[in-house]
Write a structure and sequence with these properties.
The chain is an alpha+beta fold. The chain is 19% helix and 33% strand. It is built from 13 helices and 42 strands. The strands form 8 sheets. Strands 6, 7, 8, 9, 11, 12, 14, 15, 19 and 20 form a 10-stranded antiparallel sheet that branches. The protein has a 9-stranded parallel sheet with strand order 32-31-30-29-23-22-21-34-33.
């Protein structure tokens, strides 16, 4: 592995290295007795020294923790690592740093990248065996660094808070802000023991639903320290993040699968290498700035694709509409209606391949039904194309139903296994994408549907979690799963390489696999399967904490039986993201269809702004039952804000800290055919007072435009500088 030459940084016993880009600089330090550690962070004009911990932490069978613990940090190999060499480069705006260390026969290469103009750093750790024996890996962290002040007096965690989220099917992205010092970290008087504590606050994911419960994304913030860190683990499988308190301060550690959490171990034979999953940490002087930097990183690291800018409006027939029961008779009127209101893609969802009427456990061949489409599926696809729309189909490519003929045709080795038995979950087998027969089958399916029907959009769903993994041809079940996870990504890359204009939606029972291993490649993400339109806004508002606004497809599914305010409420839910429409359009009257058409026109007008915006939360983090909810998008010139009322009083006050002192004009964006809400702008506090209509269920999207003013209002005495804002 060693290809770099040592670089002398001075004759002093302690060596330091400053590295980064135009917005963030990390300082690394090491010496003959200490491993490489991040020792300082410079961002937004502030430099903070941080608690020193080894940046590389590796757990092996023959070298555990010191002291004994279940942490990612404080491994014996981490403490033994010693600097060998480093190398820096800049190419096409990508700054790269590699630092090589060694602990006995274990070599570790830190690989860091940062895009120009983005205050975020992505890290991987590549470990290798340079000896003659075996090394059994049990955990390889991708990022470990302190975040509290190095050597600070007093309580290091007292000023710090965490912003983290949990999800569930139909209840995705429930975020909260919590002080670190409290139930998570009680004062332990650990200094009296002479050892660091053994516990940590950890979040883990096992299996393949990477965002089914705890989220791989979070933020740490200290307003007193003027520092915030936002992170994401970019992996479509098992992961772990942890926040720990040492005697001298706090640290953040990010990792892929581990032995303790996910049954992962991997054997390094002599000269073998293993690369950890990527993890990104974004920096800012406060949580909003760190969130902005993570948004910038997500845009900079996406696979180039025409859809990234085009963002066509999609109609999908599933949600609260055909519900997996498409037929020619049902689809043709919907296709006509969707084209009339301005949809650009029409996706036929689940059921198009089923002759039996019970499609769940027969999926896998992906052959068009003959009973649902008497004239053939081509008749329906041709109608979509004739109406000027791109055709789309639903696929769940990674599964094969237990009653599918394909289950017997493919070899057993093409499926995830445990002890020689194929894993079954909810009447499905799960393909192992490492196997050439599994990959060849899926390639043939995709290529055939594109060649035969001219399909330009796939909604790729993922409705089961097969568990810890497969022990077939693997060192452990977690090892088999990690290799499969990486094979899925490689397969997707191959599909997009062959079909560069193909649009792929990332769906997984709503948002159970909403990670940036997938979303760095795929166009958009269904944010939920939530069918109650009154509950959906809480999910839509929180989604930009996890994904880009332009990738967040929150369903807009108005129905004929809804009144005007309810219909507008549904449409507003999807408007500040990737506009994703459903509903019985063909059963609507002219006025109802016109409202949908107007919303689609607005969505098309807004999409360029959305794709360049930064999200913010004028009412703070949404709570599930909040009567008022708001999502803001800050643009180069204007702000957009969607506001939902679900009860409570008719008045609410929104905060726009970045607009303090500005003269602002507020104009309605959507709907325009319903009573306007009264607004009053207070420039001295950067707040917008809104009085809603009498109905207790309503929503509006507004535009805030900054106007030149002869005099800028002076903030009230004692008013805090809110230029960075706050995510409450």
């Amino acid at each position: 592995m060693t290809t770099m030459q040592p670089v002398t940084t001075g004759a002093a016993p302690t060596s330091t290295l400053d590295w980064g880009n135009d917005l963030v600089t990390l300082t690394f330090g090491w010496d003959a007795e200490k491993p490489v550690a991040c020792t300082a962070v410079e961002v937004s004009g502030h430099t903070r020294t941080v608690h020193r911990v080894p940046f590389v932490e590796v757990l092996t069978a023959d070298a555990g923790h010191r002291p004994a613990s279940g942490r990612l940090a404080h491994t014996e190999h981490g403490a033994r690592m010693r600097y060998v060499a480093h190398d820096e480069s800049v190419e096409n705006g990508l700054h790269t740093l590699a630092i090589l260390q060694r602990s006995g026969d274990l070599e570790a290469r830190i690989e860091l990248t940062a895009h120009a103009g983005v205050a975020a750093v992505t890290s991987r750790v590549v470990v290798g065996n340079v000896g003659e024996g075996r090394i059994v890996l049990r955990a390889v962290a991708s990022w470990v660094s302190g975040f509290t002040d190095q050597g600070s007096e007093g309580d290091a965690l007292s000023e710090w808070e965490r912003l983290t989220g949990v999800s569930d099917w139909l209840g995705e992205g429930r975020w909260s802000r919590t002080p670190l010092r409290g139930p998570d970290f009680v004062p332990l008087a650990e200094h009296l023991t002479g050892h660091n504590p053994r516990g940590s606050l950890a979040a883990v994911s096992t299996g393949t639903w990477s965002t089914a419960h705890e989220l791989p994304t979070g933020i740490l913030e200290s307003r007193a320290a003027h520092l915030a860190l936002a992170w994401q683990i970019e992996h479509n499988g098992a992961w772990r993040w942890e926040i720990g308190e040492d005697t001298a301060g706090g640290y953040l550690a990010l990792s892929g699968p581990t032995d303790a959490d996910a049954g992962w171990s991997h054997v390094l034979a002599p000269a073998d290498r293993f690369e950890s999953v990527p993890a990104t940490v974004a920096f800012g002087s406060a949580a909003p700035a760190a969130a902005d930097a993570l948004t910038d990183h997500r845009r900079a690291s996406r696979r180039p694709h025409p859809d990234n800018a085009a963002m066509p409006v999609i109609f999908n027939d599933y949600m609260n509409t055909l519900d997996g029961d498409p037929t020619t008779e049902k689809l043709l009127p919907l296709i006509t209606a969707a084209a009339e209101v301005g949809a650009e893609v029409f996706c036929i969802d689940a059921g198009w391949y089923d002759d039996s009427g019970h499609w769940w456990d027969t999926v896998g061949e992906w052959l068009p039904s003959t009973t649902r489409f008497p004239g053939g599926l081509g008749e329906v696809i041709d109608a979509i194309h004739a109406a000027g729309m791109v055709s789309g189909l639903w696929l769940e490519p990674e599964v094969v139903g237990i009653r599918s003929p394909l289950a017997e045709r493919l070899p057993a080795e093409a499926f995830l296994q445990r002890n020689g038995e194929r894993v079954v979950e909810h009447d499905r087998f799960h393909l192992d994408l490492r196997h050439p027969a599994a990959r060849a089958h899926l390639d043939a399916v995709v290529d055939r549907l594109i060649a035969d029907f001219g399909v330009g959009f796939f909604k790729m769903d993922y409705n089961i979690n097969p568990g810890p993994g497969t022990d077939h041809d693997a060192d452990s079940v977690g090892d088999g799963l990690l290799k499969h996870n990486r094979a899925v990504l490689d397969w997707l890359d191959g599909v997009l390489d062959r079909h560069p204009a193909l649009i792929i939606e990332n769906c997984s029972s709503g948002a159970m696999r909403m990670d940036y291993a997938m979303l760095s490649r795929l166009a958009m993400q269904s944010t939920s399967d939530q069918q109650d339109f009154r509950k959906y806004p809480a999910i839509a508002v929180s989604s930009p904490l996890s994904i880009l606004p332009e990738q967040a497809a929150s369903w807009a599914y108005p129905q004929p039986e809804m009144d005007a305010e309810e219909s507008a409420f549904c449409l507003v839910t999807g408007l500040l993201g990737r506009f994703y429409v459903s509903g019985h359009l063909n059963r609507m009257d002219a006025a109802q269809r016109e409202r949908v058409a107007t919303a689609i026109t607005v969505a098309k007008d807004l999409r360029i702004e959305i794709a360049a915006s930064h999200p913010h939360w004028p009412l703070g983090l949404p709570r599930w039952d909040d009567p008022w909810l708001a999502l803001g998008l800050r643009g180069a010139d204007d702000d957009l804000v969607s506001l939902w009322r679900r009860g409570g009083t008719a008045d609410v006050t929104l905060s726009f800290p970045h607009l303090v002192g500005a003269s602002v004009e507020v104009t309605p964006v959507f709907p325009l055919d319903l009573p306007s809400w009264h607004t009053d702008w207070d420039a001295t506090t950067g707040t917008l007072h809104v009085h809603g209509v009498d109905t207790r269920l309503a929503a509006r999207t507004l535009r805030l435009t900054t106007r030149p003013a002869a005099s800028i209002p002076t903030p009230a005495p004692g008013h805090t500088d809110h230029t960075e804002g706050a995510i409450q």
